[in-house]
Amino acid sequence: MPEQGQSRDLGPSGAGSVVRPYGDTTGDGMVQTSFTLPVPPGPKAEGAALQLAQKMGIEPAMVVHSAAIGEGFTFFVVYGSVRHLVDLDAVQVEERAYPLLSPGEVNAAVKTRLRRSLVVLGACIGTDAHTVGIDAILNLKGFAGEKGLEYYRELQVANLGAQVSVPELVHAARNRKADAVLVSQVVTQKDAHLRNTRELAAAFREAMGESRPLLVVGGPRFDPAMAADLGVDKVFGRGTTPGEVASYLVHALVPEEEPA
Amino acid sequence: MSRLQLDQALVARARELAARAAAPVVDLAATHTTISVERAQLRLAGLTGTDPVLGDGEVPWVNRVVDAVRDQVGLEHGVALPVWHALGSGGTLQELAEQVGAGTARFTVPEGSAADRAREAARAAVGAGIARIDTNRARREELVATHGNPPRRPWIYLIVATGDIHEDIPQAQAAARAGADVIAVIRSTGQSLLDYVPEGATRTGYAGTYATQENFRLMRAALDDVSAELGRYVRLTNYASGLCMPEIAVLAGLERLDMMLNDAMYGILFRDINPVRTFVDQRFSRMVHARAGIIINTGEDNYLTTADAVDEAHTVTVSQLLNERLAHEAGLADWQLGLGHAFEIDPAVPESFRLELAHALLARGLFPDAPLKWMPPTKHMTGDVFRGYLLDGFFNLAGALTGQGILLVGMMTEAVVTPWLSDRDLALRNVRYVLEAAGNLHEDFAPQPGGFIDRRAHTVLTEAVDLLERIAAHPQGLIQAVADGTFGITKRAPDGGKGLDGVVVKAADHFDPATELLERTHA
């Protein structure tokens, strides 16, 4: 076991703001970790695991378990005391402009605060036939372990599919009284995604003015900071999940308080 | 085997209602064809490759030919009549495809004796593909006889998905050596919505590897090698779902895949594929699977990832009964029905494990001769991998205790990362421990008649019959039920969804040599 006396040192700034991991004694710094090395099992493999643990700041480290995986790989479980300190005063937390809500919370917010279902229209515009982006966000199947917006009972979702023209989309949005229009652009060349988005924003502004739906675009080539420049309300980049989009829709479209 | 004493009158009523609910779906397949069913004819006749000129060279010849026939004479007569009529004046199917590429092919629908000749030639060409499927089936039986089946049930089913077939192969072989009996190669995200089957060996899938004929061939050959090494026939699984379901089924038969995911409603509900397209495509694909001796796996587990596993347990039973009915109708035997269900009850629910046992035993009791595909927890897997490992252990125990046929190995890192080498190894250790420690526990385990498990199973069956009554009461049965949102949360209208433009009403002289040859054998 690590020497408890040494581990009790709370660091230069004293008690409170500096902490270490807690095993069973304040300040013992104990952590456990597991990993695989591409090395056949044996004393050399264990030595390699200890070296890695040391470089990770775990000292002393104990390899409490090692087992072969197939030929040429070994799995390790390591326990030990980590020498690093955490300065709580230096921890910075980046806060999202809106809270991330669960599907249940999204439904509850729409139901109690909007008091009708939220109408969401999705499409791929331009010549892009790759609906994988909009489908990942809208289809029940979803993306990254999250269900798509179709899963949300209080969202009324229509997916117009690929190669929808901007006038068609404006028409559909007006007919269905869409609260939000989601557009994805996956395959793009020579910044076609930016041109298409500006065209989209201009068409909605011209046709509907202030009463236009919320415009949300997304795709791997977009820079999320460009929303204002493109004339839309929100831009989502690579790796966006349905839950983030749904949470944003609530933030942007659902009043803060229940109507009186 | 642990068995429940099910109310046999209720079971009979459930099957009768399922047959009534499914009847309109069967009629759809008799009166419609799809572009994918027509492309499947050409694939059976041996047409492969892509048009090198169009697009980036990714459009298969089968798509080019079917589109050209459709443009010139329509698809209501089927692709076989005009194609083999055109071939009557000489040349191969491949050469005809190249003429389509060059814009010089001219198609007409033959009549009279010219039509008879075209039909005869089409039967011979498509029959050659079916003969290859028969040969593969015989070869599988031979290999199983040589190497042997897995030593016990359930068979252990493991997923591989790197996106690169040449990475998948060593991983699949390693998984087989570590104890996997069935390897599933997950498809690239969104392949189900492609209206063509990609070609060749692929290395660039996203979160999965494209299903292509060449990828099928490479992986089956690699698993044949490892089967010989291990003295155990290792099965290969892929996905006959999405817009190209019939073609993928044909490719699976041609390359001796052993199991295929193939659900009657999954594409409709979860991928918004047009219901008519799906129902027509699924019937054709199931006829091919029946012929090829492929075990299908249905997707009922998916309902429970979107709906509550206790409240909606009966929708799983209903879907299993409908899948069974549609499978039997297409010629599949009970041993080919890997009907799906899953361990997805919230672990915070009191008695959750007993509820799981009740649901699993109900499926076992309703479908005694089907292998049953038992799916691990996903919905209530969190980043807490330690809790996840315990939950997977209980899942494995439920599988052993209730005699499931195919057990998909759960990963403690579900919802965290795609499985690491060590995740897979730990998961297989979990399965091995449970099966070795308690694999025969079902001999000692019999739920008390009138007890908690018995009553719960009866409740779910009763709710399933009630729902089937409502579906069967619809004039359009299952089709209307899907439109009304009976399953899951979504409503899917018969004239909505993707792929509708690929559905064609058959003319009286529509000719489909594959269905004709496949129906002849199973009738």
Structure description:
The complex is a heterodimer of chains A (260) and B (523). Chain A has 260 residues and is an alpha/beta fold. In chain A, α5 crosses α6 (192-208). Chain A is built from 8 helices and 10 strands. Helices cover 30% and strands 23% of the residues of chain A. Chain A is elongated. The longest helix of chain A is centred in the C-terminal third of the chain and has 17 residues, at 192-208. In chain A, the strands form 3 sheets. In chain A, strands 7-6-8-9-10 form a 5-stranded parallel β-sheet, sandwiched between helices. The longest helix of chain B is centred in the first third of the chain and has 36 residues, at 112-147. In chain B, α15 (385-401) links the parallel β9 and β10 (406-408). Chain B has a domain at 151-454: D-Lysine 5,6-aminomutase alpha subunit (TIM Barrel), CATH 3.20.20. Chain B has 19 helices and 11 strands. Chain B has helices at residues 8-31, 35-44, 61-73, 80-87, 93-102, 112-147, 165-177, 213-230, 245-254, 266-271, 275-292, 301-306, 313-329, 352-366, 385-401, 421-438, 452-473, 477-483, 513-522, and strands at 32-34, 155-160, 182-185, 235-239, 259-261, 295-297, 337-338, 340-342, 373-375, 406-408, 503-505. Chain B starts with 7 loop residues before the first helix and ends with a helix. At the A-B interface, β2 and α4 of A face α10 and α16 of B.
